[in-house]
Amino acid sequence: MIRKLSFVLLGALLIAALALGLVYWKLHSALGQPLQLGAAQTLEVQSGDTPSGLLQRLERDGVLSDSFWLRLHWRLKLSGHTLHSGEYQLRPEMTARDMIGLWQRGEVVQHTLTIVEGWNFRQVRAALEALPTVKQTIVGQSDDEVMMRLGQAGSHPEGRFFPDTYSFTRGVTDLELLQRAYSRLETVLAEEWQQRSEGLPYQDPYEALIMASIIEKETGVPSERGEIAGVFVRRLEQGMLLQTDPTVIYGMGEQYRGRITRSDLRRPTPYNTYTNSGLPPTPIAMVGREAIHAALHPVEGKSLYFVARGDGSHVFSDSLSEHNRAVREYQLKRRADYRSSPPPRQTPAPIENAQ
């Protein structure tokens, strides 16, 4: 009797071992199978999708087979892992194991938004609207409404979003990206303000941001930022008009068509620094850290004027007579690429300006 039971038990164990071996083989084969793809493709996983449902869908689409065993693998090995929504890049050389590894690690496709130094807020909004991977929630809303939704009611949007490349996954909202850029600008501005030089003519960080935006638009050669900042700071300190073209252009808005005239320089707007003393009321562009740093660390010196050479660089002058000579030498020989930021105006500027 005991001997018979031993044979039965041995048989049961053998059957169990064979069954386990079969299961292991099926799991191994299912995981090792190559994905049936002719080319790379994107698998979009939405909120609420499950591994089981996705595997069944892929089997129906002919991308893989034996989805039962793959679903069993997830239940046995990965039941505690969260399936992150987003896009997963599937390539022909991948196996089912590789694909499940992507799901396990949450390696979703990253898209990017680049905000460029010197852009205005209108350009930032246009860049957001052009991204099909971004959920559009602010289209048609005014700038004031957008700032209110960001929790910054009453704030002007210009210059308040940090130029950088921002990575995101499909489905992020335009407002979420703006919030990230706004918070980044606040952080950078606060860091630079804490390390500012002494005796600057700014009442608060916002005024420094306004100055930085002018420097951003005036600078064609990065190494000149500090020197340009020095000119504008000294003009502020001495009660001189800033007389900078980019502020005039910004104040012209949609009326600007690539050139400014003498009448434009005389036309009163809140941003015309040929007619208004001090800084304009708001920044005129998005500002990088380097321009903020320059505004808060202007280069010491005596220069009060500068004129563009036409290659992006400038000639700096201490006196009006020196500046007039530089204007005659360079300004009257303007080329189409005279200015590195806004296009050139076609008539000579008044001799007594900072440009």
UniProtKB/TrEMBL annotation:
One of its GO terms (cellular component) is plasma membrane. Gene3D superfamilies: Classic Zinc Finger, Endolytic murein transglycosylase. InterPro entries: MLTG-like. One of its GO terms (biological process) is peptidoglycan biosynthetic process. GO terms for molecular function: lytic endotransglycosylase activity. Transmembrane segments: none annotated. Its EC number is 4.2.2.29. It is an enzyme of class 4 (lyase). The record marks 218 as: Important for catalytic activity. Keywords: Cell inner membrane, Cell membrane, Cell wall biogenesis/degradation, Lyase, Membrane, Transmembrane, Transmembrane helix. Functions as a peptidoglycan terminase that cleaves nascent peptidoglycan strands endolytically to terminate their elongation. This is Endolytic murein transglycosylase. The lineage of its organism: Bacteria, Pseudomonadati, Pseudomonadota, Gammaproteobacteria, Pseudomonadales.
